[in-house]
User: What shape does this take?
Amino acid sequence: MQIPPIIFGTFQYGSLDELYPMVRSAYENGIAGFDTSPSYNTEEFLGSALSKLCSSAGIQRDRLLIQDKVDGWQMEESKGRIANYVKHSIAKLQSKYIDVLFIHWPFPEYLAETWQAFAELKKAGWVKKIGLSNVRHRHVENLLKETGVMPDVIQIERHPLRICKEDVEYFKKKGFIVEAYSPVCRMDERLVESEVLNKIAHKYNKTIGQVILRWHIDTGVVPVFMTKKESRVAENVNIFDFSLPIEEVEKISSLDINYKIFVESVCCPGI
Assistant: This one.
């Protein structure tokens, strides 16, 4: 399964009953990729939701992409030997493998050991692609020097208030697929009130959110979005009937102020 152009995230869902309608709506609107993490506490919900979807709609597992993560506490508790945690996650997901597995945060302790374990899991077929989340190019450079193991995918917080220009350019030059979580920055008022975004949205008869998601795609990045509204799912995929010329991409990128929702020193001390 190739990485689709847009992925549905499952952060902050509290039950299968809450998640399943959104998973079904996502698939019905053309979304085949789903993202979770042990720290989201949604692996079991997502596994059940996708199993139910496959059964009811006659969908084969290989038509879906599932992304999961290994969290810092798992790295520390196992001293980087995280295989059993991953196999447990696969069981929760009611799958035989994970399409993309990320190290959630680059905690320095046991990072190299964990990354080597990722390479072994990929070789064994437990995961199809391996990735790093919440990294900058310096983390990747250091890890490559230490292990020689190349990531397939990078997932970072990215939106018009934090465009990560140098990092994204480095990742893409290396041939890594780049994904953006929090792609619309939770519709920060500085985006909602942006004259640039409002003018572009009016021009294409789109919402600001749709324009931002299109900006990600037109800059070669895969947005990973979440919502609890089915109408928003349909809205967020209605972005493939227009594209932004380079001058509009640059205007949106000029909104960058290096603003971050998930502050690194809080989420991952020491990086």
Summary: The two ends are 32 Å apart (CA to CA).
